[in-house]
């Protein structure tokens, strides 16, 4: 099964978002990073902008919420028509109820964990999620270095998903390039976010290079 590529528009030109959305048409998803300046020390965009992205994007939306009060906000992004909504597990009071609320809209429900957060509680309720996002940097900014010490956690998630027989996707996000994608896929990732690696050059060429690197695993 080929790896899915989800370019992060955090590295796009926010003054030319529609143009930059069309420059990644060869990808599988578009990764939309929502940050609130509280859960992470950075602020990006919110519901009205994501709603317009949903209207003009040629690709399904892979919304990544890095915001407090995930229980309240995740369903709102799902209602906009996002394909997938990932909320930060650390910001949710009741992750299972929040995932159910997201799923009730027809969207895929996903939970993210920071590099230092234990994944085991989520692996015990795997059937409640369509995807798990293992952060490979501390969330907040693009262009950071991949943290290889998150790989045992990813490999453990891969083992749990395979054993369950469930079709739960495993996503990685942060510091992915043509080298680190090989490590991430070898440890079980099937869905890969890349921001600076895609928009740092000609996006269609960068996406092709990432796909080629992933196919070597
Ligand atoms: C970081 C965001 C990422 C970011 C990745 O907190 O969640 O999606 O855009 O950027 P790169 O690929 O440049 O590390
Ligand atoms: Zn992200």
Automatic annotation (TrEMBL):
Q: What HAMAP family does the entry give?
A: RPE
Which domain of life does the UniProt lineage start with? Bacteria
Q: How is the cofactor bound?
A: Binds 1 divalent metal cation per subunit.
Single GO biological process annotation from the record: pentose catabolic process
Its recorded name reads Ribulose-phosphate 3-epimerase
**InterPro entries linked to this entry:** Aldolase_TIM, Ribul_P_3_epim, Ribul_P_3_epim-like, RibuloseP-bd_barrel
Asked if the Swiss-Prot or TrEMBL record annotates the protein with the keyword Cell membrane, the reply is no
Provide the binding site for a divalent metal cation.
Answer: 31, 33, 64, 173
What family is this protein classified in? Belongs to the ribulose-phosphate 3-epimerase family.
Task: Locate the coiled-coil region(s) and give their ranges.
Answer: none
**Cofactor or coenzyme needed:** Mn(2+); Zn(2+); Fe(2+); Co(2+)
One Pfam family here: Ribul_P_3_epim
Question: Which residues of this UniProt protein bind substrate?
Answer: 8, 64, 140-143, 173-175, 195-196
Q: Which reaction does this chain catalyze? A: D-ribulose 5-phosphate = D-xylulose 5-phosphate
* Keyword list, A-Z: Carbohydrate metabolism, Cobalt, Isomerase, Manganese, Metal-binding, Zinc
Q: Which GO terms describe its cellular component?
A: cytoplasm
Q: What is the lineage of its organism?
A: Bacteria, Bacillati, Actinomycetota, Actinomycetes, Micrococcales
Active site (record annotation): 33, 173
């Amino acid at each position: 099964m080929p790896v899915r590529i989800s370019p992060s528009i955090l590295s796009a030109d926010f003054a030319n978002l529609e143009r930059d959305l069309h420059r990644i048409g060869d990808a599988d998803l578009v990764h939309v990073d929502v940050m609130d300046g509280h859960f992470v020390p950075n602020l990006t965009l919110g519901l009205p902008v994501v709603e317009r992205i949903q209207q003009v994007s040629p690709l399904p939306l892979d919304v990544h919420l890095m915001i407090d009060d995930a229980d309240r906000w995740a369903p709102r992004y799902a209602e906009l028509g996002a394909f997938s909504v990932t909320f930060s597990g650390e910001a949710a009071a009741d992750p299972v109820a929040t995932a159910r609320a997201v799923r009730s809209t027809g969207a895929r429900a996903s939970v993210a964990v920071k590099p230092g957060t234990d994944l085991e509680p989520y692996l015990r309720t795997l059937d409640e999620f369509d995807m798990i996002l293992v952060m490979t940097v501390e969330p907040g900014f693009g262009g950071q270095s991949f943290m290889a010490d998150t790989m045992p956690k990813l490999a453990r998630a891969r083992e749990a998903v395979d054993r369950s027989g469930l079709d739960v996707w495993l996503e990685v996000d942060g510091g992915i390039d043509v080298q680190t994608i090989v490590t991430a896929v070898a440890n079980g990732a099937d869905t890969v976010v890349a921001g600076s690696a895609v928009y740092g050059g000609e996006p269609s060429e960068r996406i092709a290079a990432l796909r080629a690197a992933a196919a070597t695993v």
